[in-house]
């Protein structure tokens, strides 16, 4: 009664705040708790299961298993070849992206600033070392000022 | 300044920045540990052959994974607050400089003793002498004496800017109509670069900050020369 009052207050939406077996769409599925509809052979097998299990043959045990479970452990854990197509597609798209980047560099972008020329970069490097930039653990700390070379 | 493709911080040029470096090491270590643990758990969950559909709850693990993150957060918060309060200590500066942000340059005023003021514009790329750093050099640097506490009052004349020098561990927003104060000590001489850190229009990326820390006599010579030129 409380539930119907609450539903009227909140609106005419369908609410499922608890596991409703009747609803059929909760976390607990009815198939997890009940047996499926059994054929006559399966029903008689289930009766036989109530006796001693040593009396069951291997095929009967497997048939009983198949009533309750869709797949065996081996079937469940077997892999597929899907990963090959995924990885292949991934590499293809990466390669295609590389082509797009190369095309852009050739046909879209303008020239880089003159500060990227090798001669300029040499002077820049010399200046960074002369100014002792990051002398503690960074750039200039890796240069041997006495022997004028990078530290080994 | 940073070298190309540098990922980490620049070397500290002030005591506060040193503290920040150590705190960053501490926090990053914690982050790496947590990430490694989570990645391990994910890989273990994805590759296990075990199944269990009927777990409903577990009080023990819920307690652990609530208390442990709280403890970790405290371990991060304590050093963090320590540095926060350290940055706010009374510092009795030797020199006060006003850094005013404009569109699109900085101007510095040294008015403790005389009336010294000048603008600091970025050197355009085509005007660089070979070896200068593109987009970082300015025509006039903010020169300060080394190993002296400096107070910088940051404000703006038009729109929001932000005065930042990473090597000194300093960043302060420049708000028009407001005076923001920050302070630092340059522990070693050198040139320290920074860039405007609040979007301010078309040339926001082209108004750098250059601080030069020099011995006191050199600073005095420089300020005399600047006063003559003015």
From TrEMBL, chain A:
Domain of life: Eukaryota
Localization annotation: Mitochondrion inner membrane
Entry membrane topology: Single-pass membrane protein
GO biological process: mitochondrial electron transport, cytochrome c to oxygen
Pathway linked to the protein: Energy metabolism; oxidative phosphorylation
TM regions (residue ranges): 85-103
Keyword Mitochondrion: yes
GO CC terms, sorted: mitochondrial inner membrane; respiratory chain complex IV
Entry keyword set: Membrane, Mitochondrion, Mitochondrion inner membrane, Transmembrane, Transmembrane helix
Record-linked Pfam families: COX4
Known role: Component of the cytochrome c oxidase, the last enzyme in the mitochondrial electron transport chain which drives oxidative phosphorylation.
UniProt subunit comment: Component of the cytochrome c oxidase (complex IV, CIV), a multisubunit enzyme composed of 14 subunits. The complex is composed of a catalytic core of 3 subunits MT-CO1, MT-CO2 and MT-CO3, encoded in the mitochondrial DNA, and 11 supernumerary subunits COX4I, COX5A, COX5B, COX6A, COX6B, COX6C, COX7A, COX7B, COX7C, COX8 and NDUFA4, which are encoded in the nuclear genome.
Similarity section: Belongs to the cytochrome c oxidase IV family.
Name of the molecule in the record: Cytochrome c oxidase subunit 4
Gene: cox4i1
From TrEMBL, chain B:
Residue ranges of every copy of the Cytochrome oxidase subunit II transmembrane region profile domain listed in the record: 1-91
Catalytic activity: 4 Fe(II)-[cytochrome c] + O2 + 8 H(+)(in) = 4 Fe(III)-[cytochrome c] + 2 H2O + 4 H(+)(out)
PROSITE patterns in UniProt: COX2 (PS00078), COX2_CUA (PS50857), COX2_TM (PS50999)
SUPFAM superfamilies linked: Cupredoxins, Cytochrome c oxidase subunit II-like, transmembrane region
Locations listed in the record: Mitochondrion inner membrane
GO terms under biological process: ATP synthesis coupled electron transport
Highest taxon in the source lineage: Eukaryota
Main location, first listed in the record: mitochondrion
Transmembrane annotation, as ranges: 27-51, 63-85
Cofactors required: Cu cation
One GO CC term, this protein: mitochondrial inner membrane
Keyword terms: Copper, Electron transport, Magnesium, Membrane, Metal-binding, Mitochondrion, Mitochondrion inner membrane, Respiratory chain, Translocase, Transmembrane, Transmembrane helix, Transport
Protein name stated in the entry: Cytochrome c oxidase subunit 2
Source organism: Sander lucioperca
């Amino acid at each position: 009664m409380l539930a119907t009052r609450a539903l009227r207050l909140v609106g005419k939406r369908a609410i499922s705040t608890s596991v409703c077996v009747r609803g059929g769409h909760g976390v607990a599925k009815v198939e997890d708790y009940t047996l499926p509809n059994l054929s006559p052979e399966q029903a008689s097998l289930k009766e036989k299961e109530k006796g001693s299990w040593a009396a069951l043959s291997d095929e009967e045990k497997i048939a009983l298993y198949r009533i309750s479970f869709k797949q065996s452990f081996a079937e469940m854990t077997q892999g597929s070849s899907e990963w090959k197509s995924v990885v292949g597609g991934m590499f293809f798209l990466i390669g295609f992206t590389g082509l797009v980047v190369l095309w852009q560099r050739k046909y879209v972008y303008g020239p880089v600033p003159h500060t990227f020329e090798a001669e300029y970069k040499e002077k820049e490097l010399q200046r960074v070392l002369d100014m002792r930039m990051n002398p503690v653990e960074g750039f200039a700390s890796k240069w041997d000022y006495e022997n004028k070379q990078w530290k080994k | 300044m940073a070298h190309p493709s540098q990922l980490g911080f620049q070397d500290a040029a002030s005591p506060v920045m040193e503290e920040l470096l150590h705190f960053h090491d501490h926090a990053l270590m914690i982050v790496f540990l947590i990430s490694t643990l989570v990645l391990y758990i994910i890989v273990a969950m994805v590759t296990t052959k075990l199944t269990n559909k009927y777990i409903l709850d577990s009080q023990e693990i819920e307690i652990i994974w609530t208390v442990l993150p709280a403890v970790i957060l405290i371990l991060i918060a304590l050093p963090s607050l320590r540095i926060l309060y350290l940055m706010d200590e009374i510092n009795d500066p030797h020199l006060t400089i006003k850094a005013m942000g404009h569109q699109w340059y900085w101007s510095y005023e040294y008015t403790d003793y005389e009336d010294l003021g000048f603008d600091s514009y970025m050197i355009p790329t085509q005007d660089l002498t070979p070896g200068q750093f593109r987009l970082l050099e300015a025509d006039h640097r903010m020169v300060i004496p080394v190993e002296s506490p400096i107070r910088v009052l940051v404000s703006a004349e038009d729109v929001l800017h932000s005065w930042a020098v990473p090597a000194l561990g300093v960043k302060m927003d420049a708000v028009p109509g407001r005076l923001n104060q920050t302070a630092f000590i340059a522990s070693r001489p050198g040139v320290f670069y920074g860039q405007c850190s609040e979007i301010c229009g078309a040339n926001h990326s082209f108004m750098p900050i250059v601080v030069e820390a020099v011995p006191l006599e050199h600073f005095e010579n420089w300020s005399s020369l600047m006063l003559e030129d003015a």
